[in-house]
């Protein structure tokens, strides 16, 4: 396993930030690590990357224990923390040279730095001091330093924070291309990013893991009802909707649009079509609403 976390707990004074969690990541997986603010995501990532010791439990990276073999772990991990600490007085290449020196990269450093500058799209800004860069380009510098020593495991905490839509797509494609050769644990609040990049998600809430599965399985397991959205050409008498036997309830959602809740969307769709003919009511649109990852997240993390 690239990452293995077993019964991990972290306590700050009287607060349990992480509460007896366990999970594993195989080589080549890109896994989304989700949770509301304060759920324990960053604390877990800091333990895996040896920045924080656990109170109890274990964490290993590529078979090396984070407490007993921290230097071996650091050789194999690239870490982009949420705060992305950088030396603003350094030039971009100067900073990457400094990072390469820390990793003891020697002769390979110069070539690898240019590869990272190109891969992260820093070329046009590489002559500047880091402090003069936009937030998006600072984030790219952070990604470049995380990948510079070609680590087996990447821990990315909000990697697309501050990027514009075009930059987000570029970084998303970069991270996706890493899948297969590297293991990526990715924390973000942007559900579209998770759906676009990740094969699996782990959801943590109040320090405990509440879900660990593929996105599709989570969506299916969370769905105990479906919604049929119907838009009529004109306003209708809502009392008529009581005739729909396959609708558990209905709700007006603006203008001539109604949301019908059902456990059998196909049966309700057929019933609505027949019902509209019976009452001579014209329908502008009729569509089922699928359950999104955001719906699943809200359901599992609701206090």
Count the strands? 14
Radius of gyration from the alpha-carbon trace, in angstroms: 24 Å
**Structural domain tally:** 2
Largest sheet: 6 strands, mixed
* Largest beta sheet: strand ordering: 6-7-8-3-9-10
Looking at CATH, the homologous superfamily of the largest domain is: P-loop containing nucleotide triphosphate hydrolases
Beta-strand content estimate: 25-35%
Distance between the termini: 33 Å
Low-confidence segments, ≥5 residues, pLDDT <50? none
The quaternary structure here is single chain
Helix content: 25-40%
| Strand/helix succession | EEEHEEHEHHHEHEHEEHEEEHEH
Mean pLDDT: 90
What is the CATH C-level name of the largest domain?
Answer: Alpha Beta
* SS-based class: alpha/beta
Architecture (CATH level 2) name of the largest domain = 3-Layer(aba) Sandwich
CATH topology of the largest domain: Rossmann fold
Please tell me what the overall shape is.
elongated
Number of helices: 10
């Amino acid at each position: 396993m690239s990452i293995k976390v077993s019964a991990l707990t972290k306590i700050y004074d009287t607060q349990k930030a992480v509460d007896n969690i366990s999970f594993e990541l195989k080589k080549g997986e890109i896994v989304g690590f989700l949770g509301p603010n304060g759920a324990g995501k960053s604390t877990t990532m800091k333990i895996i990357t040896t920045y924080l010791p656990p109170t109890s439990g274990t964490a290993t990276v590529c078979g090396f224990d984070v407490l007993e073999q921290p230097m071996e772990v650091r050789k194999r991990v690239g870490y982009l923390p949420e705060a992305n600490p950088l030396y603003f007085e350094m030039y971009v290449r100067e900073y990457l040279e400094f990072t390469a020196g820390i990793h003891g990269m020697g002769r390979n450093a110069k070539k690898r730095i240019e590869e990272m500058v190109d891969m992260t799209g820093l070329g046009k800004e590489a002559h500047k001091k880091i402090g003069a860069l936009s937030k998006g380009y600072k984030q790219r510098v952070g990604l470049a330093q995380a990948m510079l020593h070609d680590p087996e495991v990447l821990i990315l905490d909000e990697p697309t924070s501050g990027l514009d839509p075009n930059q987000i797509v570029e970084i998303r494609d970069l991270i996706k291309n890493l899948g297969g050769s590297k293991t990526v644990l990715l924390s973000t609040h942007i559900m579209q990013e998770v759906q676009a990049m990740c094969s699996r998600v782990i959801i943590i809430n109040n320090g405990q893991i509440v879900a660990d599965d593929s996105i599709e399985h989570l969506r299916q397991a969370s769905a105990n009802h479906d919604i049929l959205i119907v838009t009529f050409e004109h306003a209708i008498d809502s009392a008529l909707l009581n005739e729909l036997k396959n609708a558990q309830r209905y709700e007006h959602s603006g203008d001539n649009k109604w949301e019908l809740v059902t456990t059998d969307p196909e049966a309700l769709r057929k019933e609505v079509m027949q019902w509209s003919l019976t009452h001579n009511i014209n329908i502008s649109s009729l569509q089922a609403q699928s359950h999104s990852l955001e719906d699943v997240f809200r359901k599992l993390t609701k206090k």
